[in-house]
Amino acid sequence: MFELDDRLRADTVEIGELSLCRVLLMNDAQYPWVILVPRRENVREIFELSDADQHQLMIESNAVAKAMADQFKAEKMNVAALGNMVPQLHIHHIARFSNDAAWPKPVWGLHPPIAYGEAELAERISVLKRVLLG
Asked: Do 13 and 121 touch, CB atoms closer than 8 A?
C-alpha cells in the first residue's frame, strides 16, 4: 500500500492526484514548487517503475512543467528527482525567475523555507488545482 514519506507530508500540502502521481505543493512561498510522487510502494528511482509507469510519469511531469511555466511565466523550469534526503521517488517542479531568492543557484539549502500565509496558500492551491488537475 502506498504511503507518503513523513518528511514530504510535513513539508508539503496536497493538491490532488493525477493518474499515477500524488501532486503536492512545497510549503515555501519563495517559489512556485510542485512535487509529483508516483503512488507506488517502495520505489526510490524512476527505473524501478514499470515501463508503463515510467511513460505515465513522463507525461504527467511534462504536463505539470508546461502548466507551471505558462501559469507563472517562468523563465526556467527546474525539474529534478534527487532523493538524497527523502528516498521515496518524488520529482520537483520549480518555476524559476532571475529575481527569485536563490537565482541562479539551486533552491535546496540556500534559504530557509517561508511558509505560505493562509490566504496565499488557499489562492495558490486553487490556481494549481485549476491548471494541473483541470
From this structure: yes
Residue 14: name the closest of 29, 41, 40, 36 by CA. 36
Percentages (nearest 5) of helix, strand, coil residues in the chain: 35, 20, 45
**φ/ψ bin of 36: left (φ > 0), alpha (ψ from -120 to 50), beta (otherwise):** beta
**CA 43, CA 10: separation in Å to the nearest integer?**
20
Residue range 98-112, pLDDT digits in tens:
999 999 999 988 899
CA distances from 83 to 15, 70, 90, 91, 111 (A): 21, 27, 7, 9, 19
Which residues on adjacent β-strands are paired with residue 33? Answer: 94
**Cut 0.85: pTM above it:** yes
Comparing C-alpha atoms, which of 50, 27, 28 is closest to residue 39? 50
